[in-house]
Amino acid sequence: MDIRAIGMGLAFAVMWASAFTSARLVVIDAPPLTALALRFLLSGLIGVALALRMGQSWRLTRPQLLATLVFGLFQNALYLGLNFVALQTVEASLAAIVASTMPLLVALGGWLVFGDRVKPLGAAGLVVGVAGVALIMGSRISGGVDLLGLALCVLGVLSLSVATLAVRGASSGGNVLMIVGLQMLVGAAVLAPVAAVFETWQVNWTWRLGAAFSYTLLVPGLTATWVWFRLVNRIGAVRAATFHFLTPFFGVSIAALLLGEALSVLDAVGVGVVMLGILAVQVSKRR
Fold first, then answer.
1. In the predicted model, what is the mean pLDDT of residues 250-270?
2. 0.90 cut: is pTM over it?
């Protein structure tokens, strides 16, 4: 892992974590699924246009195509769709913390479902990570968090865990930016009819909405996804996933700075414990 890879990983972690704050600002003024479908449509068109200009091809390999469809459905439509709906009632910091548990869920699923060998450090990381999540959830539930919104966040991170398994297939073989654009369009195609049926077009046009939507369109939506695929190609999925341990810290810090969300002592301790658990799980996967 060289300096460039470290810089890419840190940039991804910041951009990924900031998505929860910008999404929270968007859903204050606009219907969540409609806004997200529009974001995917615009991001996808921009990504495909840039990919064509760079000489990348529409023709994907069969593994790339299958993984791109799975990624577009589970990561974009389900994970982000559920989180955008949840952020109407759940704080951005809590959504970021729940989403950050994805590496723990992937490791746990690999052990329970596929029989992957878990080293002692990885097993300890799973226990520590779960304990940190339990500490945060207990504090938030006792504080009156919206349980439906919390449940949507949990379902979302489960969908993200499934999508993560498709990243390696989607990112190998080149055409990275084309794949990014196409999986955005998959998300738009899935969410648009759902939004048309269940939401009404009620938008509070403010500068806050314009700035937040533009940011979430270009930075977490397009740039962060592209950086993630490039990072996986450069250092591999296991090493790249190590940077997810920074998501809880950046997520709660950005939410506190821009949204004024309060962070209790138990929250701070829980975030630290979750970060240690994620880091231990990822380090244990290295040879």
1. 87
2. no
